[in-house]
Amino acid sequence: MSRDEIRVVAAVIEQDGRYLITQRNAAAVLPLLWEFPGGRVEPGESDEEALIREVRGRIGIDVVIDGKIGEHHHTYSHYDVHLTMYACTIEDGIHPRPVNVNDLRWVRSAELRDYEFPPADENTMDKLLGLMSN
Questions:
Q1: Per-residue model confidence as pLDDT tens digits over 103-122
Q2: Which domain holds residue 27?
Q3: Is the pTM of this model over 0.90?
Q4: 14, 17, 34, 106: least surrounded by Cβ within 10 Å?
Q5: Which CATH number characterizes residue 32's domain?
Q6: Predicted confidence (pLDDT) at residue 131 exceeds the cutoff of 60
Q7: Total domains present in the chain
Q8: Spatial separation of the C-alpha atoms in residues 51 and 31, rounded to whole Å
Q9: How far apart are CA 87 and CA 10, in angstroms?
Q10: Is 121 in contact with 36 (CB distance < 8 Å)?
Q11: Which pLDDT value is given to residue 114?
Q12: What's the rounded Cα separation, in Å, for the pair 10 and 83?
């Protein structure tokens, strides 16, 4: 029996030393956990197309993708997740809002550990915290 693998993309958006995180809706898989904005890559879609679509759908803004930060494969009990994270920016004066998420916050890298992230995201946090600590 083959396992399903889900491709997921996430935007790491930094402004003034803070990073944007979003809280999943109460009815979502892994409800109310925090994550970088993004979501599932649909069949036939590039990572970049999915990232722009998912971020717009979740926080109502467009991002500029600056480059890939890293990838991680995580095995859950019933499926696998392949998570690719991208450094992104938003234009000055553009303000994200919770469109299809429960909440959003701008936090410093040192504060990221104060929020509960899904296991697939947790496994990338040490690498991300190292990259963000400068």
A1: 999 999 889 889 998 877 77
A2: 4-132
A3: no
A4: 17
A5: 3.90.79.10
A6: no
A7: 1
A8: 21
A9: 9
A10: yes
A11: 92
A12: 7
